[in-house]
Amino acid sequence: PTTFIMTSFPVDQTRAFGKLILFGEHFVVYKVPALVGAVSAYTDCKLEYTTEPGLEVIDNRPAVPLYKEKKMDEGIEAINLTLTHLGVDTKKSGVKLTFGGDLCCASGIGASAAQVVSLARAVNIADSRSLSEDEINAAGYEGEKGYHGTPSGIDNTAATFGGLLRFQRTEGAPIFDKKTLVSPIRIVYASTGITASTTEVVGDVREKKEADEAWFADLIGKYTKLCEEGQKAVEEGDMDKLGKLMNLNHEYLQELTVSCKELDDLVVAARAAGAVGAKMSGTGRGGLMIALTPTEEIQNEVGSALEKLAPQVWKTTFA
Q: Which is nearest to 53 in space by CA: 88, 25, 84, 90?
């Protein structure tokens, strides 16, 4: 088939960021606030229209083993949902997508949101539209439904806007406030090497809530107070306080049964190596953990300690 290629597609303008949840995974589904930080790693997307109808996807994103294989069907569904939302019909004209970037796909880093947000940016450029950032974000949210059933909206918002965000779902549009950091927050994050199904784990939490509403209401009340204190610690640049609150948030997630031995072992190792706080981040039952490491020296020491246990370890900043 003949391919129509823009002379040079500005792939760097399609960048969408990964994210780590600082506070609030699982609780955020029930309309309480969460704090999320975009990481500096990104996914990008090149879009080419072809004469043969259909969709061709070339996925050059780095990934932990088996991530892309496990997520392949959900990924195609997410891409189709995004294209449909944006009015692109692959039955009429063919679309070839090439995904790349330096964000390593792992459960919990927001890779699915970064993928669909970069796709929305690519459609915006290829069709010479002038979509606002909010419209890009909305397209990303539609795409996320392919991966998450009922997405919180948190991942696509971080992927679109970057920075540190306070995020809250409502009956209507989600509320998010961008937070200014006193200085960049150094972190280390590590993968358990296990990819969990977000839809499944979210469903399990819902069952636990429905089985004991009073217990869940008490836990979500404690979490909401913690999140407010965490926001204050971020605004004041109080890393020790922030670390203690991360540790406490991990305990609440253990109570929800969304942590696992592999995550707990990494959290313990990070704290022992000097992290001021550590917790699981994201879906849980695998996926990622995050450690707060205020200095370069601590960041390196925690990174080295985690490399002995985890298949992948990354050092980055929320900025």
A: 90
